């Protein structure tokens, strides 16, 4: 059972570079989420999606973009990386609003 | 928009004793779900317990129970018979309006 798979696990970016964090789930979940977690802090919602073709902004969307062309995939795009985007990024998915969210193992991103 | 507040940044508990982690929430949505997650030092997010806004009884899962007081907008987590392996960050979350929002977390440390 793969669940939610995030790639890569670690990445170092230079200021101004761009990259895409991949997230895939094999549970046919409708809801998918992207979070960032700064050291010692809670999870901040970046973007979420309630189904293929539908995305919406969360609490901290600036500097990020997402797409949801299929039910399975929900990539997060960072354009023009900044040191403030150094964080651990988590992708999650759930079947409904009232069922548990399953999390990927996270991507540790450092921008230097 | 909804909000989750966890007012205890850190707590100590003696092994085998019970501990309560506080969580208050705010939402204008009449239908919502409340969740607790555990994050050990290894970083993964582990689902513990769920409470729906229309559930009449408090949720229980093994040593975990959720003390749901709807009028007070609180959803405290009670861990009975604490174990050393319970030492971790604990996050309360609310899912309302398609968004899953997390609190800032409480670090629990279990003393032998």
Q: Please provide the ordered H/E string of secondary-structure elements of chain A.
A: EEEEEEEEEEE
Biggest beta sheet summary of chain B: 6 strands, mixed
Distance between the termini of chain B: 41 Å
Please give the number of β-strands of chain B.
Answer: 12
| Computed structural class of chain B | mainly beta
Rg over CA atoms of chain B = 13 Å
* Oligomer state of the chains in this structure: heterodimer
Helix/strand/pairing class of chain A, anyone?
A: mainly beta
- Average pLDDT for all residues of chain A: 96
Shape of chain B: globular
Topology pattern of chain B, helix = H, strand = E: EEEEEEEEEEEE
Relative strand content of chain A = over 45%
Helix count from the secondary structure assignment of chain A: 0
**Most extensive chain interface and residues per partner:** A-B, 26 and 22 residues
Mean pLDDT of chain B: 96
State the helix count of chain B: 0
